[in-house]
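Hi team,

As requested, here is the filled-out complex form for the heme C run. I kept the field names the same as last time so the parser does not choke. Let me know if anything looks off before we queue the next batch.

— J.
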Amino acid sequence: MSRTIVAALLVVVSVAAADEPAKPTGPPPGPPPYQMRAELPAGDRLAGGKDGAVLYSNRCGACHLVGGMGTNLLTKQRMMLGEPPEQGLLTNRTDLTQTYVKLVVRQGKLAMPPLSRVEVTDAELDAIATVLGKAGP
Ligand code: HEC
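And here is what came back:
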């Protein structure tokens, strides 16, 4: 009797083992993009001529790269407007102007806090706005 139970248990265990999902292979996934921001470019932060895309990654990336809370909130907003989720990334937008970007950064907007000239200098913001927005109001 007990042998039958043991045999039945063995069958159950082996069937359960066969159903186990395959273990993931390769290296574990790295940190999400918003935690992998570019380094702040060296040199005078008040001087112009820096790479706006690098500055954007460094100064805005914690919230606006993939996985950041700004991206998450804006993705929801854009999807509610019927746009694809990629529009949650500011770098994919075509409707932003440089003036608007600078205004939002200095004054804040809803869940986005205003950023001071210490956090983002005027020269840095000029370069960032050039990457994100078109010229004009
Ligand atoms: C602390 C997080 C945080 C940082 C840092 C941050 N933002 Fe934001 N940003 C947000 C959030 C959150 C929103 C969405 C605000 C809302 O609608 O509630 C937002 C919205 C915006 C918008 C408005 C988009 C729209 O559709 O109207 C612009 C433009 C913007 N951010 C630019 C920037 C730039 C440029 C920087 C860097 C200089 C920056 N942000 C840094 C959190 C951040």
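Two things worth flagging: The chain has a mean pLDDT of 90. The two ends are 86 Å apart (CA to CA).

Thanks,
J.
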